[in-house]
Amino acid sequence: MARQSQAHDIFDNPASKIRYEAYSRLQAAAVAFGENLPIPEIVCIGGQSDGKSCLLEAFLGFRFNVKEVEMGTRRPLIVQMVHDPSALEPRCRLQEEDGDDYSAIIPEASIAEAIRERTEVHLRKLGATVSSKPIVMRAEFAYAPNLTLVDTPGFILKARKGEADSTPDDIMAMVKAQCAPPHRLILFLQQSSVEWCSSLWMHIVQEVDPHYTRTVMVASKFDNRLKEFNERWEVDKYFSASGYLPPTVKPFFVALPKDRASGSASSADWRRAIQEVDGGVKQHLRQSITGGFDEERFGARIGFGNLRRFLEEELANRYRDSAPATLALLQERCESVAKELIAADKKLQEAADVVSLRRAAIHYVLNIATKVSSMMEGSPLIDPMHFGWTTEEERSSIAGANWPGVAAVVRPPNAGLRLCGGAAFERCVQEFVEAAKCLEFGVVSRERVANILLAYKGRNGGGVGMAAEELARGAAREVLEPLLNSACTRLGAVVKRAYDIATEQAQLQRGSGYERLRPYVAFHAALRSAFQAFVHALEERCKGILLHHLETATSEYAVGLVAGRKACCDQERDEAGSRGPCACSFCRCAESSTFDEPPSVYDRSEGAAPHSADENEPAMGRPPFAETQQTVPETPSPDVLTVNKPDHLRRAALAAAAGRNVDEDSPGKGRVAKVPRTAMVPPAASAGSAYLNVCHQAARLFGRIRQAVACQAAPATLKSAFLEPVGTQLAAELSVELLGRRDEDFMKLFTAAGVLSALEASRDAMAKRVEGLVRCKNEFQELARCL
């Protein structure tokens, strides 16, 4: 009678009822609005066949899930049981998926079908087999306790037909997440026929609650194990679970009616059957076991009625203890959500304010431009492991990233490092220089050389030199121009990558400016287009400067000057004699240049082996003595003076006597213009080696042009043409392009379809959330007065 009176007090105590109603509504609001509140709850876990559904029906006092209609739910089910003496028939409602309102009353026989349909629709929308979003069911009944139970999907070893193979692991992970919050009480069910030491799922409880401080063990289907006991010591040993569970863990032993096939039985029959099973178990222990059992020690933990009373008392105590902290948390959340509502109203008002939008746009544009500029200067705030690319990744992301005319694999320094911004720009410039070094003077056909030589035959000398110059100029234009254009494209892609990194960083930082402008796709598209147009203009400008360098370096005057300076140096050596090498800057540059290698193959059909530039260089030898350096006899003979005269003076004398056809290399009438064209021709070369002489000289001139353009002028031009404008002009260019518009044109960037309606819907949802939390806070304030 004392226990019945205690149970009666639990049901009819006004303070308990107010407390339970307040927590039930708070729980519904938390599920609806996604609030994470420490509400005391009981989570029921166990295997799929351990009797969780039957235990849930026993708590409710009526059956809604008969064996023939399996729910098969893959979502948690929060069952809010409300003890209402006026509800002689169960009144069950399901909470709406996207709100805190409840549906109309659902007949108890249709609840399982409604739960299964909601589960299938939700999982189909997610494209998953398991979801952690719970289904909330409120059940008001005169024979239900004030108890909230979270029923979880049962553990399984193998997925059902049509489910993913990962379903068992997904269920286990989801159940662990449901049990993890410390404010939740864990109700662990296991069939009594399985020993505690052989449990398949005990390790899950040990992971989430290692000391079993909030775990209640339940041995279900106890009537199956009861038949195995004959003597008292066997029963007492099993009840104590010594050696298997910690001494602080006191398991319950529950048996429920097995006849579930008769769907026509009323809820009264179901409740009567539960009481009969409880009474039958205790009667068997008292009468059929030799010596009975230690009823004083274990009697309070046998039967469903004792488990129900224990959970009601435990939950009521937890509600009472956590009420002050919950009220304080509700007040804090109400203030926070109220501020969010004010911000939502402000955002909705500013959505149509052009001044506010201009201010937000200029702030965002300057932020992006600053990020890009700092990246190109070398910002330490960028994570290279997340944003950086290797050389191979950079090439694969750019269409046509191969260097034109270069067949070899170009691997610049630091090719394997993940770089971005200015570091990636510098590595790309180095890669361009390495690619330029791989360019060689191509094979020239004999016919082409012959055509050039014959075209210059009628001129006053210079045939070999002019032919070499023409070939070098044409080859330099042909191979260097595509390479320079490709370098501009590659570097432009590096700068564009910096913009992508800047926008991604803005998304990760989630600043107020980004959140406000995020829905406006047209604005972000216009900003990206403006940036790409800016980079494209830099590419075209840089290409123009580089092509100007190339045209200047390959002009007839410049190439002739290069060849002429070399010839002048040779002549100065002739005149200087033993005074030492020429000290002009051209000779020093030529001697230090590493680009004087000739082409690897000139003409395979001629059988000529490749030669190095030094081997084919005109042999200087020891210059003849000048007249002032000779020892002249007292009576010199004319032959001595004639023989020892410099060779070019001798040729000039012969040319003056015989005319222009005597020596093609002789200067006529004091002109020295033809000296540069012939200075590089080996004097010992025969007439049959003119083809090799032309190719050799052309290769040397090509190397000097390549050195001057690709390795000296181009790197400096690329850096100044890209990096300086990005740092000084980018912000202004983007601001003018986006903000330098009339208000009508500017607002077209902020007229995305559905943005205003989405903002209004968000504001309304926020207002509803504030209203629900304020209502819960007021209820808990009333509850605090009753405690």
Automatic annotation (TrEMBL):
Segments for region (Disordered): 593-643
Domain of life of the native organism: Eukaryota
PROSITE patterns (alphabetical): G_DYNAMIN_2 (PS51718)
Domain Dynamin-type G: 36-324
GO molecular-function terms, A-Z: GTP binding; GTPase activity; microtubule binding
SMART domains named in the record: DYNc
Pfam families with a match to the protein in the record: Dynamin_N
Matches recorded under SUPFAM superfamilies: P-loop containing nucleoside triphosphate hydrolases
Gene Ontology CC annotation, any one: membrane
CDD domains membership: DLP_1 (cd08771)
This protein's name: Dynamin-type G domain-containing protein
Organism annotation: Chlorella variabilis (Green alga)
